[in-house]
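Protein modeling request. Please complete all fields; requests missing the sequence field cannot be processed.
Requester role: graduate student
Desired output: 3D structure, token encoding
Chains: 1
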Amino acid sequence: MSGFLSGRQYVMFAIGVWACAAALADNGIDCRTASANSMETLVCRDAELMALDRALSAVYADAMMKAGNERPPVLKAEQRGWIKGRNECWKSDDQRVCVVDAYRRRIVELQARYRLVPASPPVRYVCNGNPVDEVIATFFTTDPPSLIAERGDQTSLMFLAPGPDGARYQGRNESFWERPEAVTVVWGFGMPEMPCQKADDTAVSPLRGSAWQLLAIRPAGGAREGAAVVAPGAFTLAFGAKGDALFRIDCNRGRSRWKVGASSAPSAGTIEFGPIATTRMACPPGSPDQRVMRDLSFVRAYRLEDGKLLLSLANDGDVYEWGPTAPGKGVE
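Delivered output (332 residues):
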């Protein structure tokens, strides 16, 4: 066997070396190549900053495991953008404080976004006295403590800010301030404070505590003819007693909030799901996962019929037919 690499072997070797170098660039500082007077050199000469760099590398690796099938793949690009931002700390009056803050915030951001630390169940707040205007907050045991707030199709990561009066979380252009007497939220630069209050549990409903598996997707109007049959167990839905909803959407898992409207007949009524936070795996070809994910946000009515749950989309759209399953089965 020759001791020399063939052309193809050389190309593959070079690609492997490049990939390793790229991974190192995303996942920690190589002090051997750090430029003089750079932020990398500042980190390399400081034991505490090096500890933060190692901590971020570990958290980033865990996040990469969660984001392995993320579409589009944004984590690597965002990490490179964060590195550029950290290196901009050379402009700061106190470079070390700037770098420490950059590391701590990035660690918290990854831990919260990719659910790498314990989190509270989502809490729903109704703002401006309008049930449609709601903010859903999930609190994370990070350092510093953080929350992810959702309003409509927008999200904001906020950090607990020191203060004597209640718990105040601050994001880029949003804030969440919880005091014993009130909760106020600011959403957007220059926007006024919104008075908010924690929402009551969803109305008493026969759906509470029930669990279902998707059987078929009926065409508009609910006709059985032409229904798309779904493999049992691939898509499941569990209604929590306090307004939380858990989903299995083929190869992904999701969480949301659900609420029903007042109805004279408990077996039927209006229903809506809030924004759904899901994992982002790429499911097998042919899976209707993207269709189901899209349609869940348009569910507007439910009906219990012959032991099945029928969820109807807005504007006389398709009808999702669900059969009962054991609570917790398929949504772990």
